[in-house]
Amino acid sequence: MPRKLIALMLLISFSFCIFAEEAHKPVPYEDDEFPSWTIDLRRSEIVTFGTLPFVTLGVTIGYSFFRYAKNGFDSDYLPNPLAKSSAAANLNSDEQIGIFISSGIISLIIGIVDYVISRIERRRADENSENERIRQQESVVVETGN
Questions:
Q1: In angstroms, what CA-CA distances link 82 with 75, 86, 90, 128?
Q2: N or C: which end of the chain has fewer CB within 10 A?
Q3: Number of continuous H segments (helices) and E segments (strands) in the chain
Q4: Cα(63)–Cα(58) distance, rounded to whole angstroms?
Q5: Residues 119-137: what's their mean pLDDT?
Q6: What whole-number distance in Å separates Cα of residue 6 and Cα of residue 3?
Q7: Of 5-19, 26-40, 67-81, 92-106, which has the strongest mean pLDDT?
Q8: What is the pLDDT of residues 58-108, one digit of tens each?
């Protein structure tokens, strides 16, 4: 009986493939489908979240060296991410929260700077293309038949 039940369940589940809809090929985005500011905003979002792990690593290493120097270069505070034996070298929760907040702020600043730079570059490119279009219109010479 269980074999018949399993066979029936397999038959039913595989029969759905027969009635499945054909796959649709996605259409690529058009150049003017999204406003330019949304493209720049998406880019800065990607940059912000993309830099977060690296900034967190840098802030953690920087804070570890700061704490090592602050404690008189005591060997218990030597920055070593692999050492778990020293209780003094472990970061408490307030220090960890401070590191994550600092990393988030620095990553956000990097994202904002990227957004501003992208907008400036896009504006310059638009101005250059507009100036080029005007130059081409001015260079057209209209000849009249005299």
A1: 14, 11, 11, 53
A2: C
A3: 3, 0
A4: 8
A5: 84
A6: 5
A7: 92-106
A8: 999 999 899 999 989 888 787 876 666 556 567 888 988 999 999 999 999
Instruction: Give residue 139's identity as a one-letter amino acid code.
Output: S
What distance in Å separates the CA atoms of residue 130 and residue 70, rounded to the nearest whole number?
57
pLDDT at 30: 84
Q: Which residue's entry shows tokens 């802030």?
A: 59
Sequence-distant (6+) residues with CB within 8 A of 106 are 51, 55, 59
Cα separation, 136 vs 132, whole angstroms: 6
Please give the residue that has the higher pLDDT: either 67 or 32. 67
Tell me the residue type at 6.
I
Which whole-number Å values give the CA distances from 65 to 49, 91, 107, in the listed order?
Answer: 25, 13, 21
Q: Dig out the tokens for 114 from the structure.
A: 């990227």
Contacts (Cβ under 8 Å, ≥6 apart) of 49: 107
Tell how far CA 12 is from the center of its chain. Answer: 43
Q: Helix 93-139 and helix 36-70: axis angle, to 10°?
A: 140
